[in-house]
Write a structure and sequence with these properties.
The protein has 175 residues and is of the alpha+beta class. It is built from 3 helices and 9 strands. The strands form 2 sheets. Strands 3-2-1-7-9 form a 5-stranded mixed sheet, with no helix packed on it. A hairpin with a 4-residue loop joins strand 4 and strand 5.
């Protein structure tokens, strides 16, 4: 949210919100983020990728429920600063792909990107919310920590026009 409030999000960016699936924060709703984007003059030109869920009022390119989630070793939890992401959506066939196609200035095929992500360790800032119970028997926390680790959040600015290739840039998850 801080990245949006501070004006660090621009048209063509992709926000990647990871660590907010069931293992991270209990599959929270991302309405605050999508509502804030909706009120930006260029909000329709910002995409959101997440392992969390959306409400029925989300607009724009919101791709959620990405699995396996980041904390389960899924690729979304391995995307790093400087990575170039390509999003292709076929609105007629209702099909799409999200591919890693570069690191910094280096470009490669989606197949090579898949191999690179498979070999990577998860982001070092990716951690479950410490306030969540570890088992159903332990129940909900009564006194959650004041500063529990949150999801990893970063933006990916556009590197080219309609092809939707984007380069990752981190935003602190505490934002």
């Amino acid at each position: 949210m801080a990245a949006i409030k501070e004006g660090r999000i621009r048209a063509g960016d992709v926000l990647v919100l990871t660590g907010v699936g069931p293992r991270g924060t209990g599959m929270e709703e991302t309405y605050q983020v999508t509502a804030a984007l909706k009120h930006l003059p260029f909000g329709q030109q910002v995409a959101l990728l997440t392992d969390a869920r959306f409400s029925g009022v989300s607009t724009g390119a919101c791709i959620g429920h990405i699995g396996p989630e980041g904390l389960a070793g899924g690729p979304i939890g391995k995307v790093l600063d400087g990575d170039v992401i390509r999003i292709e959506i076929d609105r007629l066939r209702l099909e799409g792909t999200v591919d890693l196609v570069g690191e910094g200035e280096r470009r490669f095929t989606p197949v090579e990107g898949e191999r690179i992500l498979a070999a990577r360790a998860p982001r070092p800032d990716l951690a479950p919310n410490a306030a969540l119970p570890t088992t159903p028997a332990s129940g909900p926390p009564c006194n959650p920590p004041a500063a529990a680790p949150g999801p990893a959040v970063f933006t990916t600015p556009t590197k080219s026009s309609p092809s939707s290739k984007r380069s990752a840039k981190s935003v602190n998850s505490a934002d």
